[in-house]
Task: structure prediction
Amino acid sequence: MNKIIEVNDLHKSYGKNEVLKGLTLSYEPGQIIGLLGPNGCGKTTLMKILVGLIHDYEGDVRIDGQAPGVYSKSITAYLPERTYLPEWMRAGEAIDYFQDFFADFDKAKSLELLRHFGLEEKQKIKSMSKGMQEKLQLLIVMSRNARLYCLDEPLGGVDPATRSAILDFIMQNYTDKSTVLITTHLINDVERIFNSVLMIGNGQVALNSSIDELRESGKTVEDIFKEVFSFAW
Result:
């Protein structure tokens, strides 16, 4: 079986600013991976490379054994940090839009989740709060039967109770054939779902470990994060 993510000597610069400086990492399928690091460390850039939105990099990147492209996009579901659905759309129209684009989209599942999160099919996105929009975008992304889910700060605008429900939902909807890569600053709230943790700092891998290995230290992931990135504050 191919590794779902393989990255070798990855470099990416914006002008003279080198954001990624030789990243090398790989993951087997069936994990929830926490991608952590200070602001500006390259987390979003790495995620955009993995999902095929950034192409001008150096190094080798493979998703299920293939370079990012048509195949990888067909098995990868991406939730960007910023709201991307047009404000004029209604929730049901956004669901139909995704169904038209992705063969692995499960409309029945999305409608069930819509009701679960208290959203209405006919409600326009422009009338939704930020938290409601984030719920809608997440449930649409997770309604794909993808092999790799890349979620960039999916919980920033939701309340703690909803946050817990969303984390439970993520855990229930991934299998040994799918992988979730998730960036977050809410480490205390989210670390309970991690199988692995990848910390990036100054464009390099600062820590790459299983959650079990980290817990042997008796410290929380957030404690370890603060130690690793003590330079950042």
Notes: The CA atoms of residues 196 and 210 lie 4 Å apart.
